[in-house]
Fold this sequence. Notes:
0% strand; mainly alpha; MetI-like
Amino acid sequence: xxxxxxxxxxxxxxxxxxxxxxxxxxxxxxxxxxxxxxxxxxxxxxxxxxxxxxxxxxxxxxxxxxxxxxxxxxxxxxxxxxxxxxxxxxxxxxxxxxxxxxxxxxxxxxxxxxxxxxxxxxxxxxxxxxxxxxxxxxxxxxxxxxxxxxxxxxxxxxxxxxxxxxxxxxxxxxxxxxxxxxxxxxxxxxxxxxxxxxxxxxxxxxxxxxxxxxxxxxxxxxxxxxxxxxxxxxxxxxxxxxxxxxxxxxxxxxxxxxxxxxxxxxxxxxxxxxxxxxxxxxxxxxxxxxxxxxxxxxxxxxxxxxxx
Length: 308
């Protein structure tokens, strides 16, 4: 197991380098001059402009700028934004909030999606199954911002059972409604994945064998059907954790959450390459680590998989 983890970590290095190089190159190609945008309407003196370009390595070729950035990543020095604020401080402020939001969203979509998907798969072709399929299609068809504003109005404004916006502390209680909104679309996909997988495994040979041995219905469902149906669901949930963090900008905007999405959006608008690349780089690392965790979970779900 240790050798497998080490090998996967080594495989992540070229993926990380390729992803960060691509991201840095895309930000480098964004039109506009960030130094002039920083100055605003007041023009900088040539000496001040040259000093700022040297400070942010903008006077060097692209590859040298990228190498300076990699050096900073190794030493956990993400540099400073064009506004003078350390990028690491922005990371430490925004990422814990969005990680909590995405974690709650994955818990909600995973628990309810697997529960309703299991019940629908065991009742394939019946009224409950048809209802769940129709409901999931409706959820997929409705945009997230519509669900967000509707939940905010009903739960926050009309009924007053949830905060309309999230405070700077962003406690788990305040993030429940935004997490429900963020995970609503993925809930529908988890439900359908679980339902299809359970319906397929319900008639498999190993299930018929377990039933013929006299095992209880509960053990057949939980140990044999559900466990073997979880591999595609776990794959989706693991990848979705990173996707939720990167795609939380709409939900964070609706509920005024000071997380990754809003900070990243503002950095893109201002053309702050150090902030944009640093945030996206951390998201890349999260994606890679989640893929490693998914691979390790495969061995726990499927006894036929062993990592030597």
